[in-house]
Amino acid sequence: LKMASDSPESLMTLCTDYCLRNLEGTLCYLLDNETLRLHPDIFLPSEICDKLVNEYVELVKTDSIFEPHESFFTLFSDPRSTRLARIHLREHIVQDQDLEAIRKQDLIELYLTNCEKLTAKSLQTLVSFSHTLISLSLFGCCNIFYEEENPGGCEDDCLVNPTRQVLVKDFTFEGFSRLRILNLGRLIEGVNVETLLRPLASLAALDLSGIQLNDVGFLTQWKDSLVSLVLYNMDLSEEHIQVIAQLRKLRHLDISRDHLSSYYKFKLTRRVLNLFVENLVNLTSLDISGHTMLENCTIPSMEEKMGQTSTEPAKSSIAPFRGLKRPLQFLGLFETSLCRLTHIPAYKVSGDKNEEQVLNAIEAYTEHRPEITSRAINLLFDIARIERCSQLLRALQLVITALKCHKDDKNIQVTGSAALFYLTNSEYRMEQSVKLRRQVIQVVLNGMESYQEVTVQRNCCLTLCNFSIPEELEFQYRRVNELLLNILNQSRQDESIQRIAVHLCNALVCQVDNDHKEAVGKMGFVMTMLKLIQKKLADKTCDQVMEFSWSALWNITDETPDNCEMFLNYSGMKLFLECLKEFPEKQELHRNMLGLLGNVAEVKELRPQLMTSQFISVFSNLLESKADGIEVSYNACGVLSHIMFDGPEAWGICEPHREEVVKRMWAAIQSWDINSRRNINYRSFEPILRLLPQGISPVSQHWATWALYNLVSVYPDKYCPLLIKEGGIPLLKDMIKMASARQETKEMAR
C-alpha cells in the first residue's frame, strides 16, 4: 500500500488531466467563440474517451477551479472520431441534452448515479443504447421517470398553471437484449418494477435498494441466472424470504438495512439464516447489517470464547453458519450484535467491533449509502482519536474517497473532516506520501468551500494545522488564502475558528516569496487583519487573534512595499498608537507591531509619512523598552535608523531634536547584550546592508553593524552564508576605511 500511494500518476492520467484543463489548446477549437468542436483530424479509441468523460465528471465534482463546458458531451457525438464504451456520470453534472449528445455511441456500461436533472427524455435516449448495453445503473435518478406535461392553452394560463410532472408508465426494458446488470436503487414510487423488468431475459445482478415491494415473486424468472441481489432497506416478509431461497444461483445477497431510517416489522431468525445456508449453496457474500435478531443465534459463550479466532464454518460462533461449505468472502454485520462474536466464518466482515470491520464498512457502503458511511467514519474517528490506527493509509484513502464522493452531505463532511484531523497528525506523518497529503489538502479545501457550517470549518482549519506551512500548501496557495480570508471576513465569527484561521494566515505569509505576498495583499489580506485588530481594540481585548494579526502584518509587509503602503493607507498607524496606549504591558504585541513598522521604514517613499512629532516621540521612548528582551528596543532603533539615513534635511519636525534622538539611539545600542538570542527571522540582509556604505548617519551604520555581528555570532550556521552570499564582506571592509565611521563600529565590523 505504501508503494502504491507513493507511485506517480500514470502518463495516461496526467495527459487526460492536462487535456481536460486545456481543451482549446489540445483536442478542440472554439466555434463562434462558444461551442467546443473537436479538431477534424482527431480519432480517439474508447480507452481514452471513457477516461476523458469519467475524469471530466470527477473534476467538475471535486475541483472548484475547474470550469465545466456546456458543450463537452457533444465532443463525443460521432462514433467515427470518438468511441465511448464505459462511462460513469454523477449528480447535476449531467442533463438530458448530454445523454442525447452521445446517443449514437455503442455503450456497454452506463452508470448514472444521483443524476437528479435527468427526466423521461433520457429514458428515450437509453433506448438508443439498448442493443449494446450490458450494465446499467439508474441509482438515485429520482426524476428519470417523470416527464413534463404542459396543460396547453394560452400564455397566461401557463403562468398560473406551470408544467406539471407526470409519471411515465409505459417504459420497459423491451429490446435491451444484452442487459445483465441493473441498478434501480431509490427508484421513485409508482413505477411498476415487475412490468419494467419483465422483458429482460437473463439478469445476473439486480439492485432494488430502497424500493418497497410487497411481492417479489417475479424474481424467480431469473432463478437460473441471478447471481447478485441487493434489497437494502426493503421491508421484508416471509414471502420475500421464500422467494430469495429459490434463487439458488445467488453468490451475493444483501438484505441489510439502515436501522435508523424507519420502523421495520421484519426480524431475522435462526430459521431464515438456516434457510439461506441450505438453499443458497453458492453464496460467497451476505449482508445482514442493521437487522435485529429475534432470537439468539449464537453458540454458548464458554465455547464461543475458546481457542484462537477462526474463520472455519465448523467453529462459527453464529450457529446457522456452521452449515456453510466454506468461509464467506464477505459478511455484512454492521450495527448488529453478531459482529462482536469471536469466530465469524468470513474473510472480510463489516461491523463496529474493531478497525478492520469499520474500514470494511466504509469501503462497502461509501458509494450508495452515505447515511451508513457517516456512522462508520464516526467510529473510525474514535479509533484514530483514542487508539492508534494500524491501517493508516487505507483509512486515509477511504475517508478521502467518501469526502470526494459526498461533497454535499453534511454528516459525512463533519465526521470525515474530524477523522482527517486525527489521521494526519504528527505521529502518522512518516507513513504518508506527498501525493496522499496533497489529496487530503484538496478535500479539506473542498469542504471549506462547500460548507459555511462551523463544525466543518473548524475541523478543516485544524486539519490544515497538521501540515508544514507554507511548504505543503504552496500548490494551493491562492485558494487556501482566499478561503481563510473569507472565513475571517464573515460578520459573525466563531472565536476558535477565528483564532486558528489567523494563525494559518500568519504561517502562510511567513518565509514565502514576495510575489506570493503581493498576490495575497491584493486579495485584501492587510485590510482583513486591520479589521480584526480594530474589532479587538473596540472590545479592549489583546488575545492571540490580536497578536497573530499584527504578526501576520509583520510577515506580509516584509520587503513588500505595496503591502506596507496599504498598511499606511488603511490607517494602520492610528491602530498602532491606539494599541500601544491600550495595552502598554503586552510585550509580544509591541514586538510584532514594531517589526512591522521596521518593514514600513525600509521603504524610502513611505518614510515621510512616519516623520511626525508624535511617531518619532513614540519610537524614541520605545528605545528604552525592555519588552521581549531587546526586541522592541532593537526594532524601534531599526525604524529610526532608516529615518536617520535620509539625512538632516528630511527631519521636518521641531520636536524632538534629531541630535537628541541620535543620542538616545547610541545609548540603547550600547545597553544591549551582544550575545542576545533573537526572536526574529531574516530572509535577507539587504535592508540592513544598505545602511553600511554611508556617512550621513553613523548611528544607523552602527545599528546595522551591531545587528549583523549579533546574528552571525549567535547563529553562525544560518547567517554567515547569507552575509557572504549577499556581498556583506566587501561592504564591511570598505566601511572600516571610512573616516566618518565611529571607532567602535569599525571594531565590531572588523
Automatic annotation (TrEMBL):
The keyword Metal-binding does not apply. GO terms for cellular component: Cul2-RING ubiquitin ligase complex. Residues 195-336 form the Zer-1-like leucine-rich repeats region domain. Coiled coil: none annotated. Pfam families: LRR_Zer-1 (PF25013), ZER1-like_2nd (PF22964). InterPro entries: ARM-like (IPR011989), ARM-type_fold (IPR016024), Armadillo (IPR000225), LRR_dom_sf (IPR032675), LRR_Zer-1 (IPR056845), ZER1-like_C (IPR055142), Zyg-11_UBL_adapter (IPR051341). The keyword Cell cycle does not apply. Residues 403-749 form the Protein zer-1 homolog-like C-terminal domain. It comes from the Eukaryota. Keywords: Acetylation, Leucine-rich repeat, Repeat, Ubl conjugation pathway. Belongs to the zyg-11 family. Interacts with the ELOC-ELOB/Elongin BC complex. Part of an E3 ubiquitin ligase complex including ZER1, CUL2 and Elongin BC. PANTHER family: PROTEIN ZER-1 HOMOLOG, PTHR12904. This is Protein zer-1 homolog.
